[in-house]
Amino acid sequence: MFGRRKPLAWHGHLRSVVWPRTGWSRLALYIRHRLGRLPGTPYRIAAGFACGAAVSFTPFIGLHFALAALTALLIRGNVVASAIGTAVGNPWTFPLIWYWIYISGQAVLGHHDFLALPDELSFAYIFDNPMEVLLPMTVGGIPTSLAVWFASYFIMHRLVSGYQKARRVRRVRKRLRDRAASRKQAEDLSPQEAQVESGDKRDDAVLAARGQH
């Protein structure tokens, strides 16, 4: 219903992977906004996201959410952020990820006979071919995942730290504006109005104290 009238060609999909339609700056801003609103320290949020991004570079398809959450818990990362991080692996990036970890694993193992991977790579296919597919993808995926973890962590830590700092500044400024507005309102009141308002506040405080008892 909401699909494109004219489907993208293969080069259009490739371009969307390399350069998102909204642009990298807007995509980074969106992710920063989502992560920055999560509760927790910049370390926990960035570490959780990095876990999700890292497991996307492993051949364990179908287990990425569980592995990301487990890894995040082990290093005290944010589990929700780890789920967001798994979005690094998606239908557009998976073919590139699988191809990279497969050929890099084969190179590390010293193999030169590359198996043609199917277009729809599945969990069953990988484990049905443990030596031909699972082993090289695991060997290639481990160092790649570590590199992705550190890169994702440092980038997201900086983004989340900046977002949280800016959010704290906005809250302080709002608090100061509210205080200034209240002070100005009190200065604008006549002595009689100020006395009435003070009495009302005193009565409210008395009623609240009685209600506690």
In short:
This protein is mainly α. It has helices at 10-18, 24-36, 42-55, 64-74, 79-85, 94-109, 123-128, 130-188, 191-212.
Descriptive account of the structure:
α4 crosses α5 (79-85) and α6 crosses α8 (130-188). The protein is rod-shaped and about 85 Å long. It has helices at 10-18, 24-36, 42-55, 64-74, 79-85, 94-109, 123-128, 130-188, 191-212. The chain has 213 residues and is mainly α. 74% of the residues lie in helices and 0% in strands.
Structural key phrases:
213 residues, 0% strand, mainly alpha
Write the SSE topology:
Blueprint: H1 10-18, H2 24-36, H3 42-55, H4 64-74, H5 79-85, H6 94-109, H7 123-128, H8 130-188, H9 191-212
Helix pairs in contact: 2-8, 3-4, 3-5, 3-8, 4-5, 6-8
DSSP strand count: 0
Global structural class: mainly alpha
Secondary-structure element pattern, one letter each? HHHHHHHHH
Shape: rod-shaped
Number of helices: 9
Estimated helix fraction: over 70%
Tell me the Rg in angstroms.
Answer: 27 Å
Mean pLDDT: 78
- Main pleated-sheet profile: none
Q: Regions with pLDDT < 50 over 5+ consecutive residues?
A: 8-20
Separation of the first and last Cα atoms: 60 Å
Domain count: the total is 1
- What is the beta-strand fraction? under 5%
